Amino acid sequence: MTSYRAADSKREEFRKYLEKAGVIDALTKVLVNLYEEPEKPNNALEFLNQHLSGAGPETADVEALKVELAELKAKVSQLSDENEDLRSKLDKYEPAATDEGAN
């Protein structure tokens, strides 16, 4: 019975320590954010880590923006190549069109 009370006392001390340090409030806020998330993340632990690190949802936004930036850079490169190809084709046929107009 004494060991039970000692363990209970240690547990209560630890709970007070966590509460005083703001850990319980931080965990509660992050868990509520996860609960209220319309689309649950595949990795809940990663979600908790990101939101507890202080970076909050901005970290996820930054990562999404980095992915979008990479995709857009690839698209710009592809369109630039296509534009260059079309210009070379136009140059190939443009002199012939001007020669015909002069005759």
Number of helices: 4
Helix share bin: over 70%
What best-fitting shape do the alpha-carbon axes yield? rod-shaped
Poorly predicted spans: none
Number of strands: 0
Q: How confident overall, as mean pLDDT?
A: 85
| Largest sheet properties | none
**Rounded Rg:** 31 Å
Integer count of domains: 2
Give me the secondary-structure topology.
Blueprint: H1 2-21, H2 23-36, H3 44-52, H4 57-102
Helix pairs in contact: 2-3
Would you kindly provide a written description of the structure presented here, covering whatever features stand out?
The chain has 103 residues and is mainly α. The protein folds into 2 domains: 54 residues, no CATH class; 47 residues. Helices cover 86% and strands 0% of the residues. α2 packs across α3. The chain is rod-shaped and about 100 Å long.
